[in-house]
Amino acid sequence: MTWTIDGVDMTSRLVMGTGGASSLSILDAALQASGTELTTVAMRRFDAQSRDSVFKLLDRLGIRILPNTAGCYTARDAVLTAQLAREALETNWLKLEVIADEDTLLPDPIELFTAAEELVLDGFTVFAYTNDDPALAKRLEDAGVAAVMPAGAPIGSGLGILNPHNIETIVDRAEVPIILDAGVGTASDAALAMELGCTAVLLASAVTRAHDAHAMARAMSLAVKAGHLAAGAGRIPKRPLALASSPLDGMVGSR
Amino acid sequence: MTRSASTPRAAHSPSIVLNGERRELTTSSALDLVAEVTGRQLHSDGTPADGGRLGIAVAVDGEVIRRGMWSDFTLSDGHTVDIVTAVQGG
Predict the structure, then answer these.
(1) Neighbouring C-alpha atoms within 13 Å toward the C-beta of B89
(2) Active-site position among A56, A95, A138, A225
(3) What are the average pLDDT values for consecutive 10-residue runs of chain A, which has 255 residues?
(4) ipTM at complex level
(5) In chain B, what are the domain boundaries?
(6) CATH superfamily of B15-85
């Protein structure tokens, strides 16, 4: 079953980042193993080494590019980076990322919201990387972003989903796709995000910095599928005490 | 670097700041500069002569110059030019 953004149907619910891979060939193998159809890149000044680029790799693999504004601290920088990305990569799609400080890399809500409003007006399809704050998520949706992407935990931390309740609240109130972004460390984190009702999961480091990136990419692909299936399957309620699954009648012996 | 009013004008050759580094201005249009920096031949509309995708954007003094305008955009002394592309990230 597909999900849709901006009229584009996608089958894979795993959005990949390309950061952190030690080589393009490792990235190539990991992206293919992940089955991703949408993958982020950053925008940076051109240098001679850029020539053998990730841009060419994604083009060859037929993976849609989602440029980001990673590294921007202000709405102004993010908007310029977005405009450059649109021009360079010929796409209106943008992962908007405006960070507050380099220790946490958490989003700056004020700058993020300001940039989101401006970019939506300028015709961008905005994927907004945000905190796990249900109020801010709703404000971003009202501003017209195409997808809200709450952090499970700080970027690259691998801490998983620190506040599952908030993610669930964001999902329950949203009318746009919610993509869990950042913090995923291993397959169970990705499965949990989907079980909480997220439409997709975005991750990079968990795969690109894993000892075996190829194996972890495959694990993530399966985890996202498993979590999505489980979310739609109607899990049993949690209960404080046991509930026997074998019949009580016809027992041998007596108590 | 400051220059006193008496310094002859001829001593100052035109320069731009390209991707954070000062360099002599040797090309007149943005199109020529992109071709030189990327090492690719470009049509006047900014598309590569080899038929591939270029994946490059240009900003001058913080404003994006659309690809189709590169050939008409004349670089001049003191311009700050950024030429960017996609890299691994996110």
Answers:
(1) 17
(2) A95
(3) 94 95 92 97 86 83 96 96 96 97 94 98 98 98 98 96 98 98 97 98 96 97 98 94 89 78
(4) 0.84
(5) 15-85
(6) Beta-grasp domain (3.10.20.30)
